[in-house]
Design goal:
- The chain has one domain.
- The chain has 7 helices and 2 strands, in the order ααααααββα.
- The chain has a two-stranded antiparallel sheet.
- α2 packs antiparallel against α3, α2 runs parallel beside α4 and α4 runs antiparallel to α5.
- It is globular.
Length: 129
């Protein structure tokens, strides 16, 4: 599956319900880890609406950070997650859920679907998938 196909599937999982942003991202990238999709779904269950509904760091961004950590086995993860975070902020305009969902001119800065899509695409760019 291409990274674009993964991003599209993550958006589909998010929009059909039953998956938060973090779960949708980790589900499509599960094969990048030694964990199952169900294990990742359980681990990321609390990372919605800005990490535990606190409107903090975007769940999609948390999800790709977790996958990056598992993929790198902790070696160089900080550098990779920093790159992911910077690209995400450039593309989406912010990294905090509350800021991403701020409505201006009738629409949010970046919708959940776009955050999920961008997080997966950026993971592909940074991790060379």
């Amino acid at each position: 599956m291409t990274i674009q196909e993964r991003a599209d599937k993550a958006v589909q999982l998010k929009t059909m319900g039953g998956y938060n942003c973090s779960q949708a991202v980790t589900a499509v990238l599960a094969d990048q880890t030694s964990l199952t999709e169900e294990q990742l779904r359980q681990i990321t269950a609390g990372f919605c609406a800005g990490m535990g509904n606190l409107e903090a760091t975007c769940g999609a961004l948390i999800g790709v950070g977790m996958i990056a950590g598992l993929k790198t086995e902790g070696n160089g993860t900080l550098m990779k997650t920093r790159q992911i975070q910077e690209k995400f902020k450039d593309r989406c305009g912010a990294i905090k859920c509350k800021e991403l969902k701020t409505v201006t001119d009738g629409k949010p800065l970046c919708s959940c679907e776009d955050c999920v899509k961008n997080a997966v695409l950026i993971y592909g760019e940074v991790m060379d998938v």
